[in-house]
Amino acid sequence: RRPLASTTKVMPAMVVLDNMKLNDVIKVRTDTAYVSRTKIYLRPGESFRVRDLIKALLISSANDVAVVLAHEVAGSQPRFSAMMNKKARKIGAYNTHYVNPHGLSSPAQYSSSYDLALIMNAAKRYPFIMESLGTKYSSIRSLKGRRFFLKNHNKMMWRDSRPVIGKTGFTRSAMHCFVGRINY
Questions:
Q1: Is 136 marked active-site?
Q2: Would you tell me how many other CB atoms lie within 10 Å of the CB of residue 30?
């Protein structure tokens, strides 16, 4: 069992897509200014399509997006984390436990290499997730037109000629993390 940093974000993407459609609209109701590190600086009152928030979650690893999605689907981060834990058990990831949707370090949030492989394998059933994880650059817009440029943190996408699909993460306790696959 190890901290999993932003590799966490594969699971919230699946839970969101289990409960919402890509074209559903989410209005930001949660103030996310307190969320640290990587974010796209969502503003309360802005509206987005689910597809765009999933892109921001997986491509730019936006922690504020993870919080907004959790609140939209479950009403709170703890209730959303319970949904993530239920999905992990369904997949067979018994050495995984979530307490938040973004992966910022908590001693109670952990996974294993084996479980991350199971989670990534389950994510293959979500074509939009796989497409997003394999995207270097993209942009999204709020429904009022505010534009956000997204850049993938996965440096292997630029260093390897083979398609690299996956999610990276880093925290001081987790260090450098990756879950994914390289297509041969």
A1: no
A2: 18
